[in-house]
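note to self — DONT lose this again. spent like an hour looking for the file last time. sequence + predicted structure for the chain T wanted, 181 res
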Amino acid sequence: MNRVVDIETERLLLRRWKESDLEPFVAMNQDSEVMRYFQSTLTAEQTKGFYDIILQEFSDYGYGLYAVEEKASGAFIGFVGFHWARMDLDFCPCVEIGWRLDRRYWGKGYATEGAKACLKHGFDNLGLDKVYSFTAVGNTPSQRVMQKIGLQLERYFDQPGIPEGHPQRQQVCCWMEIPGS
């Protein structure tokens, strides 16, 4: 099998995307439970557009949102990695660490395992000096991952582009600088 693995953990391979990842990625993004902390689920076309952005960021920067493969099964289970956030906020543009997993793989510690490995890789090998993460205030599962990987609370903010009154508009922002700086 031809694949580029950037990061390997005890249970996961964080790798470049394959065309065969697109079908389960579409299904994951159409799952209302997976997408409950976003404005809506994504159509197949929206997911394909997101996939193209992910591939472009790998081309531009050499890193991005890695496809996550469970080593035991070889299954694509979601993504964990870095994304260039370019919103109209004073801390942007910035490198954001994020994750989204198929719900069949929730509760196993995979998001934390993958995100910790990404942070180490980002600081040790990619030359990153500061990483942000943000999510809807109500998304306590992602906030727990942020805490487990050592991110610090920076602030709360209203997400540009999300309408006033929408439950996902208020976001929590956390960050981490290169250890020891």
